[in-house]
Design goal:
Length: 855
């Protein structure tokens, strides 16, 4: 062998071996031994010069030092820990509580740079129990049938009494309450399925049912209430004799909810004739769902004890209590009008409301623990109600739009055949598949005991954003039909409702910019939280040991991510481990690649920007986008498996994952482009994109196959809208559109025959309605065929029709009665203004009256 080849062999052995050890995350000790053996072999058999061998052995000596644990801790870790402690950003209690809420699940694996797919794959597919299935098929279907969205939103401004009675009688408000208190005790998955179905029919129904089953008094009591409080409220909440709401938001404190200025002061006062120690509350809250009709108010306020009646602290911080709304001083009843979607939402105030101390949820010992309670519950609740609402809306939009685009013809063909329309349909279907996957997999994880704080924030943000995109696209495809409001419009109200989901439970801009990565970075990183905790440990010796372990683990992890990121980018992840050898195997590998790149970029961002990363929201949001794309793509893969790996669903899977992973690539690219330290940016770019940006968006061919799924009756179309309310009945356009779609397929051969006759000049018209008459006369179709075509054409025409109104029907308020001519002197106020003032007073009265009449 020539000298050059020998040198090349040894060079490859050392470089390749090093990459292999790092790639496989082999521990420091084993790596040191392996390096020592290789070096010894090189010394004996290699051709290195003496000075070169000395240099290599010296480097090896440095590698040995970290293996001498005592020396390492004293000489390396201790000085580093001192520097680290001096650099630690300050953290408020509310921030710490938010960080510690919930559990780390699959998000932690994605953060590790080396996801262990078996952990996700071994999760059982979520399933409805027999009882839950019966509820979905029974009361839930029935409730959908009872709702006339136009009547609710336009005419009554509320659900009709029989619907309220039905909701309460069937215990829709008690899905999360255990059976021992009279509740339904449904799983998170069942809760999610029910909300999806309701949302596909009516945003009012889904939000009315969603709120008491997510963050509200029942949930708070179940987790933190005393036994006495549970016995007092839960049976009533289950039976519907108590209507709950939860009041946190106030005019000053919206996104920054912890800055609320509503107060509770511990003091002596009279309660049922006796003097007791209690709390005097003052609050002003707004935007509170169900507040106008609530009988019990979950209230968040700051608790003060200036006279030290319950302890030695002046201030306890945010506290949560349950306040019956008939307590003196409590005001509820007035309503907001959220984008004309008529669910019950309104302000509430309380003036000098005196209540006993045991109104605090969990009793006086839970004083000041309110924030912790809320963030812990949000880590679950945020994953269910709003994401399921968005998924249900997406399913209805997919089902309706696919059918509509097939039956609506322009330029003598179905509009679904136009590629531009197909592009919008593909997005609706693909986004719906992503939402369905995310909601199903995450609620399934909750049922397995997880409290996935970061995935909850991911779902809240992305599902509501995807829901909004679906609504936009559906409106564009349905065009005028979607715009004209009236009883026949099945889209407009859902479209109007989308910004509501964007705003609540953490408005979306904040969720993306601050929460997803801001929480995820510390919670899910395998070492950062351990380092922080070790640095803050009051036991300094223990802190040093823990910090040392975490720090050296972290260094190994960073080296490994460098190697993995580079190798996986060079090979497109081709040789990385996958859990299944199926047509989706490459997608697992794509995620493996981006997981390593994300872990690497994330580490450098934290290392070089430290606490400032929190303020660099654009960078933090982009890192959050990468994590979200990987999480959602993993859910798609697992959902595909859970649904039995159906080949017919593959176009949806391919489109979804390509779209998500392309977004991950672009977010990572934008992150590196904007990274403030240019040296670090170039260094990272070399390891992350050695071949440039190679990931492509889904092809037009995949999109075409997705359009086919959605515009043709079949199992894949049904599965995609599996929980939407699609029953065929009068008043449900979604079911009627499906009927029309099936009829369109059935009549296609006849329509083709008519088109051919038109080409041959046997008939003259281009319009189906006239073609049928002409075709029958010219014996192109038989009488029976013509009748069948007529019936089909009538159904389609009825579905394509929109509403119109007499001008009086659209007047918002009854016309003001004509006033007798006023004597000249008295006519100071213009007549119109007078009428307006009068109307305002009447409106005020009516809403107050309504409050007492309700439920
Ligand atoms: C229909 C509806 C129902 C609701 N129901 C309830 C309820 O039942 N109980 C309850 O307590 N509350 C409820 N809310 C309140 C809801 O949670 C708040 O509206 C929400 O927290 C946002 O507050 P805000 O509207 O005052 O927006 P603001 O706080 O004024 O925020 C305005 C914008 O600034 C962004 N922003 C704020 N801070 C940051 C930041 N640091 N970084 C980036 N962006 C930021 C926000 O994302 C938002 O886009 C409801 C709201 C609505 C609209």
């Amino acid at each position: 062998m020539s000298g050059f080849l020998v040198s090349l062999f040894w060079a490859l052995l050392f470089i390749g071996g090093g990459i292999f050890l790092a790639y496989q995350r082999i521990d420091l000790r084993t790596s040191t031994i392996a390096t020592g053996i290789a070096l010894a072999a090189y010394t004996v058999f290699g051709d290195g010069a003496w000075w070169w061998l000395i240099l290599l052995w010296a480097l090896f000596g440095i590698m040995i030092v970290p293996n001498l644990i005592e020396v390492r801790r004293e000489k390396i870790t201790k000085p580093l820990l001192d520097v680290y402690r001096s650099m630690l950003p300050s953290m408020s209690n509310t921030e710490r509580e938010a960080l510690e809420a919930g559990s780390v699940w699959w998000d932690g694996e994605l953060f590790s740079g080396m996801p262990e797919w078996d952990k996700l794959m071994s999760f059982p597919a979520p399933k409805l129990s027999e009882e839950e299935q019966a509820f979905v098929d029974g009361p839930c279907e029935e409730l959908c049938r009872m709702i006339d969205d136009w009547e609710v939103n336009h005419e009554l401004g509320d659900l009709p009494k029989e619907v309220w009675d039905f909701i309460i009688e069937k215990r829709f408000f008690a899905m999360i309450i255990p059976k021992q208190y009279g509740g339904l005790e449904f799983s998170a998955y069942a809760n999610s399925v029910i909300i999806q179905k309701l949302a596909s029919r009516s945003a009012v129904a889904s939000s009315t049912v969603g709120v008491p089953n997510s963050l509200g008094p029942a949930e708070l009591l179940l987790h933190y209430g005393t036994e006495e409080q549970k016995q007092r409220y839960l049976p009533g909440l289950a039976a519907g004799t108590e209507i709950p709401c939860f009041a946190l938001t106030s005019p000053q404190a919206g996104s920054d909810a912890a800055s609320l200025i509503d107060t509770g002061v511990v003091c002596k006062g009279k309660w049922q004739g006796k003097e007791i120690t209690g709390i005097r509350l003052n609050w002003s809250k707004r935007y509170i769902t169900l507040a106008p009709i609530a009988t019990v108010l979950g209230l968040a306020f700051k608790l003060y004890d200036p006279d030290h009646l319950i302890g030695d602290k002046d201030e306890y911080g945010i506290t949560a209590a349950l306040i019956p709304t008939d307590t003196e001083g409590v005001e509820v009843g007035r309503r907001h009008n959220p984008l004309s979607v008529a669910f019950q939402n309104g302000p509430t105030t309380g003036k000098d409301v005196f209540v006993p101390l045991d109104y605090i949820i969990g009793g006086p010992e839970m004083a000041g623990k309110g924030w912790k309670m809320l963030v812990e519950l949000l880590s679950v609740g945020r994953a269910i109600t709003l994401p399921s609402t968005a998924a249900g809306g997406g399913q209805a939009a997919t089902y309706a739009t696919g059918a509509y685009a097939s039956i609506r013809k322009q330029f003598n063909t179905s509009i679904a055949n136009f590629e531009g329309v197909g592009e919008a349909i593909t997005r609706i279907a693909g986004y719906t598949y992503i939402m369905n996957s995310a909601v199903s997999i995450t609620s399934g994880a909750i049922d397995q005991g997880e409290k996935p704080a970061v995935p909850s924030a991911i779902l809240k943000y992305h599902c509501t954003e995807l829901g909004r995109k679906c609504a936009n696209d559906a409106m564009d495809v349905q065009a005028g039909k979607g715009v004209m409001m009236g009883p026949n419009n099945y889209l407009g109200r859902g479209y109007m409702a989308t910004p509501i989901a964007i705003t609540v439970e953490g408005a979306n801009i904040l969720t993306r910019s601050l929460i997803i990565y801001g929480q995820g970075a510390i919670r899910c990183h395998p070492f950062v939280l351990r380092e922080l905790q070790a640095a803050g440990d009051e036991d300094r010796d223990r802190g040093l040991i823990d910090f040392d372990n975490a720090l050296f683990g972290h260094i190994g992890y960073a080296i490994s991510n460098l190697a993995r990121s580079f190798f996986l980018a060079l090979t497109h992840g081709k040789f990385s481990r996958v859990p299944l050898n199926t047509p989706t195997r490459r997608y697992y590998q794509n995620i493996n690649r981006y997981s390593a790149a994300f872990a690497l970029a994330s580490d450098f961002a934290m290392l070089t920007l430290g606490g400032d990363l929190k303020k660099r929201e654009l960078l933090s949001a982009r890192l959050g986008d990468i994590l979200s794309s990987m999480y959602l793509a993993s859910c798609v893969l697992k959902h595909f498996e859970n649904q039995g790996r159906r080949a017919t669903d593959l176009p949806l899977v391919e489109w979804s994952i390509r779209t998500l992973m392309y977004q991950a690539q672009e977010s990572l690219h934008a992150f590196l482009l904007n990274f403030p330290n240019r040296w670090v940016s170039w260094f990272l770019r070399f390891f992350i994109f050695p071949r440039g940006r190679t990931y492509k968006t889904p092809s037009d061919e995949i999109a075409r196959r997705v359009v086919e799924i959605v515009t043709t009756p079949g199992e894949a179309r049904e599965r995609l809208s599996e929980f939407a309310y699609t029953t065929l009945e009068p008043g449900n356009p979604v079911g009627q559109l499906q009927e029309a779609l099936e009829l369109a397929v059935e009549h296609e051969p006849l329509e083709r025959r008519l088109r051919q006759a038109r080409k041959e000049g046997l008939i003259a018209s281009d319009y189906l309605g006239l073609q049928i008459e002409e075709g029958e006369k010219a014996q192109v179709v038989s009488k029976a065929e013509a009748n069948s075509l007529r019936d089909y054409h009538e159904k389609v025409s009825a579905l394509l029709a929109v509403d119109d109104f007499a001008p009086d029907e659209l007047r918002r308020c009854p016309a003001a009665p004509a006033e007798p001519a006023a004597p000249k002197k008295a006519a100071k106020k213009p007549a119109r203004k007078k009428a307006a003032t009068k109307k305002k007073a009447t409106r005020k009265k009516t809403s107050k009256k309504k409050k007492t009449a309700k439920v």
